[in-house]
Design brief:
alpha/beta
Length: 194
């Protein structure tokens, strides 16, 4: 694992622990020698995690659509900043440049990116681990809903278990580094034989 894509809010949220968690994640990535791949913004948790990576000598790679760059939300101090045509190119480049994915607190954009990446993993389009940094219990409700989806027969437990969850960056990065890199479709076939 050499790089981690981080999905997070373009706002900082109402609780100080969200910003503190973003700073700690950025520092932990840098100190672990892991490059940050993210949406390229200078605002909210996005800017905080990128600034923390850079402050601690790490590499921060931003990928931002031209429309957002024109609104002056792009971070101009990054190791690399790629300006792309649209959100689809942004998400594809982020996925291609990353070896793992982390979702921090955020809004619908963060949720959409998380679920798309999680779906791609479930379907075997990639084998990169996906995790939630559950700062202050932010994702407790979502985790409960995923459990409900399993209980109601809309999701298999084996797929739900692909989502790694921790409340500290160090613990989550350790889980992601240790996660097996096996495509789910092959893994599912092996599991079904037992």
């Amino acid at each position: 694992m050499k790089s981690v894509c981080v999905y997070c809010g373009s706002n900082s949220g109402n609780r100080p622990e969200y910003a503190e968690g973003a700073r700690l994640l950025g520092r932990t990535l840098a100190e672990s020698g892991l490059a940050l791949v993210y949406g390229g913004g200078k605002v909210g948790l996005m800017g905080i995690v990128a600034d923390a990576v850079l402050e601690h000598g790490g590499s921060a790679i931003g990928i931002i659509p031209d429309a957002l760059m024109q609104k002056e939300v792009g971070h101009l101090g990054l190791t690399e900043l790629h300006v792309v045509r649209n959100m689809h190119e942004r998400k594809q480049m982020m996925a291609d440049r990353a070896d793992a994915f982390i979702a921090m607190p955020g809004g619908v954009g963060t949720f959409e990116e998380l679920f798309e990446t999680f779906t791609w993993l479930q379907l075997g389009y990639h084998d990169k681990p996906v995790g939630l940094l559950n700062i202050g219990g932010f994702y407790d409700g979502l985790l409960g809903f995923l459990s409900h989806a399993v209980q109601e027969g809309f999701m298999k437990q084996v797929h739900a278990d692909l989502l790694h969850v921790a409340d500290t960056p160090a613990a989550l990065l350790a889980q992601l580094a240790a996660a097996p890199r096996v495509r789910v479709d092959k893994w599912q076939q092996a599991r079904d034989k037992t």
